[in-house]
Hints:
The protein is an all-alpha fold and 279 residues long. The protein has ten helices and two strands, in the order ααααβααααβαα.
Amino acid sequence: MNGLASLWRHSFVGPTAPDAGCRAPLTRLVWFAVSIAVLSAAAASFLAVWIDLPWWKIFRRCVSVAALLTLWSFMRYLHHRPLRALGLGAWGEGRRQVVQGALIGCSVVALIGAWYLLVGWCRVSIHPDSVRLWRILLVSVPAMGLVAVLEELIFRGYLLQQLMSCSKTLAMAGSSACYALVHLRPNPVWPSSGLELTGLFILGWVLALSALRTKQLYFAIGLHASLAYWARVNKLLIEFTTPSLQWLVGTNRLVNGVVAWCALAGIGWWILRRTRIPA
Length: 279
């Protein structure tokens, strides 16, 4: 058994303990969510005095920091485990998996983008402000990397491992559903929000699958970071030309079309075929 495979197998709720019962981990998850909400609300109320934004927008921006603080506190004081026990093992193997995940994500986006350009479903539309364009293109690289690390620790690390005490299926479905709901845009509009919710759920399932197959978060971090990056910057580079085919092609959100769902399913198939569960 190598690296994180050993760490995760012996973590506080490892994937090999499906009969431990649901009540305790579900209670922990409720308190985990409540703690994040309370911390975010307190921070938003404090910052609202100086920041000229609606309270709800400030709250949403505080959630990431509150989630990180809550996760660290729970791991340190409740589980007495380091954060790396959630899926961050030896960096030697981890680096290869991060690169692999990022390359697969970028390759899939590039192939879909090339197809869309060839059939006329989108066109090149470079943002006219070159300074803003390059600033976002460059700054988004480390920003999306940090986002991917944080979200994988929470959703595929903590949440997935806790729910594994109930069942593997519930763990994958529950963590994917939470991931989708958290990322759904406010003020939902149907059916657009339904398409987006479905795509986010499929993405969450694929990321959970990669974590369970490798018993590490590194591949999921690379894939997540690459897809988040292109979802952030593609609107500066291309313009979709077929709003009537949104259900098929999607939008700048990237995951809200049938083509994207099929691509994510293909990545999931690749993960099943090309990765192995560490002994």
